[in-house]
């Protein structure tokens, strides 16, 4: 029964297409394998309108994955084994479906019809859930509800069942890859620290962790990275969960203008005429910088995805995203019984997926446990990452911050911070020493620490 001749409801068209595909699969032979073609488009579950069609498809996929035939007798045997044969209508139903098989060249076309209608149903269901949520949500949580709904719609739009060219024969793309090797690979984002940029190439889809004990300078470093990256013309997004707008703005002004942070925090007469002059010189650049700030207290991966997609639409480029800090993030699904370990693990996995989906670089601050404080020299290790080993696994790069003068104020290395690059998929692992100027809320290259006043 050709789908094109039906003048019925969309559901009827979807059912007819499903029957045609299953019929073809039930007539498969060693030389003719429509199952593989259908599997390129259809997921194992969720794409089928009729439940018994999905049950038959599940049996076909099970047999196909074991290298067994998918003809009517074998599928009947598999359904009998699972106790589902009577549920789908028995041998008679399988025989009737086989009689409605489409041709081999039509399988992919019909599979796309089935998948398209499945996406349409998911879209409709998401809209219904959105309406239901809008009736129940309290006014304080409106933004969260909208962000969650947007994330769901974007997930549907992304259509993750499609391989988008991710599957294929190795040799097909080899020549293009060889041509690409002639071009120097450029980082998608920069840190503004010369030696660190030389060692750490932040590529699209990368997750970078900046980890340290409290007061080691994580926020100062990542905010400096945000400013340097934005100053280079690259879009940059900062999710400041720990600090509010007032504190972050003062830190930015202090860092860019070289005005003492405590002057700005105190305000009034504490800000000198010289301070005002320095700030005025930097304001034009700060006002036009492609830097976006988000002070939302409850940040989820869904909200981050929404912000990234918004900036991509505005700028045409995937941004550098900074999250300060990752252990304060929430999951998109509220689960009061979820442990901190499970929550951080889920957040880490979701951030990794959205970085790969959008091409954004995500730089996360992370807290370390007290392990380093019981270690000689107090030097941190990757295993000190708090709450989840998933952070270590998902990160493309891990930077551990260490200051000797934090533990020994009279240290000969006072004013120095070590950036321990303990994991680096895109380059070497090493330790880079920079100067910390926390009175300006920033880190600098050692060669820049004595720069003249502006």
TrEMBL record:
Classification via Gene3D superfamilies: DNAb Helicase, Chain A (1.10.860.10), P-loop containing nucleotide triphosphate hydrolases (3.40.50.300)
List the lineage, top down. Bacteria, Bacillati, Actinomycetota, Actinomycetes, Kitasatosporales
The record's catalysed reaction(s) read: ATP + H2O = ADP + phosphate + H(+)
Q: Where's the SF4 helicase domain? A: 182-450
Biological process terms in GO annotation: methylation
For this protein, what is any one GO molecular function term? methyltransferase activity
* Keywords, ordered alphabetically: ATP-binding, DNA replication, DNA-binding, Helicase, Hydrolase, Isomerase, Methyltransferase, Nucleotide-binding, Plasmid, Transferase
Task: Spell out the family assignment given in the record's similarity comment.
Answer: Belongs to the helicase family. DnaB subfamily.
| The organism of origin for this protein | Streptomyces glycanivorans
- UniProt-recorded name of the protein: DNA 5'-3' helicase
Q: What EC number(s) does this enzyme carry?
A: 5.6.2.3
What highest taxon heads this organism's lineage? Bacteria
User: Which CDD domains does the UniProt record give?
Assistant: DnaB_C
User: Which chain positions lie within coiled-coil regions?
Assistant: none
The protein's matches in InterPro entries, at most eight in alphabetical order, are given as: DNA_heli_DnaB-like_N_sf, DNA_helicase_DnaB-like_C, DNA_helicase_DnaB-like_N, DNA_helicase_N/primase_C, P-loop_NTPase
């Amino acid at each position: 029964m050709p789908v094109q001749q039906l003048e019925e409801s969309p559901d009827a068209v979807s059912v007819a297409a499903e029957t045609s595909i299953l019929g073809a699969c039930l007539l498969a032979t060693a030389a003719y394998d429509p199952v593989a073609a259908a599997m390129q488009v259809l997921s194992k579950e969720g794409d089928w309108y009729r439940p018994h069609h999905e049950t038959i498809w599940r049996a076909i996929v099970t047999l196909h994955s074991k290298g067994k035939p998918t003809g009517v007798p074998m599928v009947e045997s598999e359904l009998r084994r699972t106790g589902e044969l009577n549920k789908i209508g028995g041998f008679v139903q399988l025989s009737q479906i086989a009689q409605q098989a489409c041709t081999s060249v039509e399988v992919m076309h019909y599979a796309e019809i089935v998948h398209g209608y499945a996406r349409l149903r998911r879209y409709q269901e998401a809209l219904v859930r959105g309406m239901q949520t809008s009736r129940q949500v309290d006014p304080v949580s409106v933004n969260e509800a909208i962000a969650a709904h947007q994330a769901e719609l974007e997930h549907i739009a992304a259509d993750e069942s499609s391989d988008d060219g991710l599957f294929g024969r190795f040799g097909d793309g080899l020549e293009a890859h060889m041509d690409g090797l002639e071009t120097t690979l450029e980082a998608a984002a920069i840190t503004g620290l010369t030696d660190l940029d030389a060692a750490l190439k932040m590529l699209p889809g990368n997750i970078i962790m900046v980890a340290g004990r409290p007061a080691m300078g994580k926020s100062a470093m990542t905010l400096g990275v945000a400013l340097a990256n934005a100053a280079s013309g690259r879009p940059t997004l900062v999710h400041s969960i720990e600090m509010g707008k007032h504190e972050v703005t003062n830190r930015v002004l202090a860092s860019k203008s070289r005005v003492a942070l405590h002057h700005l925090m105190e305000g009034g007469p504490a800000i000198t005429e010289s301070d005002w002059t320095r700030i005025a010189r930097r304001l034009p650049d700060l006002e036009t910088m492609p830097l976006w700030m988000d002070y939302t207290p409850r940040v989820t991966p869904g909200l981050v995805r929404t912000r990234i997609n918004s900036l991509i639409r505005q700028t045409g480029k995937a941004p550098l995203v900074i999250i300060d800090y990752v252990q304060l993030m929430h999951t998109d699904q509220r689960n009061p019984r979820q442990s901190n370990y499970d929550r951080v693990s889920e957040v880490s996995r979701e951030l990794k997926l959205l970085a790969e989906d959008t091409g954004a670089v995500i730089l996360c601050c992370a807290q370390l446990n007290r392990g380093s404080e019981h270690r000689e020299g107090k030097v941190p290790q990757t295993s000190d990452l708090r709450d989840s080993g998933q952070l270590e696994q998902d990160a493309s790069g891990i930077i551990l911050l260490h200051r000797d003068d934090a533990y020994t104020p009279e240290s000969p290395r006072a004013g120095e911070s070590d950036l321990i690059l303990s994991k680096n998929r895109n380059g070497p692992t090493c330790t880079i020493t920079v100067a910390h100027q926390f009175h300006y809320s920033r880190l600098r290259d050692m060669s820049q620490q004595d720069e003249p006043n502006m």
